[in-house]
Design brief:
This protein has a five-stranded mixed β-sheet. The protein has a domain of 69 residues: 2-Layer Sandwich (Nucleotidyltransferase, domain 5). β1 and β2 form a beta hairpin. The protein is elongated. By secondary structure, it is an alpha/beta fold. The longest helix has 21 residues. It has three helices and five strands, in the order αβββαβαβ. 10% of the residues are buried.
């Protein structure tokens, strides 16, 4: 039989851990509830559109159809017309980006012809559109 004078060598820490977890939970809830930010009165923008030149899109899209037809921003063009129109755009915007879209059934030569035109015009921001 154990007497009442025996010393306890073990401390039961389970209630202490429970207390810490409850305090941690309260701290997390109060911290996230307290981060609301400052209320400021934001300035208003005008409802008018920007007065930038909207006649030509910034990014030029060149599409090569399965039949080999070339389109510049949905307008059908020949290679000579493509070169002259892109030359004019390049003169106005020297770092014009171009996206080349080619149908998977199109001939590889048609896309290479477009890339040759872009190389002659020294357009170096070229993207090739693909699907995921």
């Amino acid at each position: 039989m154990a007497s009442t004078d025996d010393n306890y060598d073990d401390i039961n820490v389970t209630p202490m851990v429970d207390l810490y977890l409850v305090l941690l939970l309260i701290f997390i809830i109060m911290t996230t509830a307290g981060v609301q930010g400052l209320k400021v009165d934001l300035p208003r923008a005008s409802s008018k559109p920007a007065t930038a030149d909207m006649s030509a899109p910034k990014t030029q899209a060149i599409t090569v159809s399965p039949e080999g037809k070339i389109f510049l921003n949905t307008i059908p063009v020949t290679l000579a017309e493509l070169e002259s129109k892109l030359g004019a755009v390049k003169a106005a915007t020297p770092d014009v980006p171009v996206v080349v879209r080619g149908d998977r059934a199109s001939q590889y030569q048609g896309i290479m012809d477009v890339l040759d035109v872009l190389g002659r015009l020294q357009i170096d921001k070229i993207g090739l559109a693909t699907q995921k």
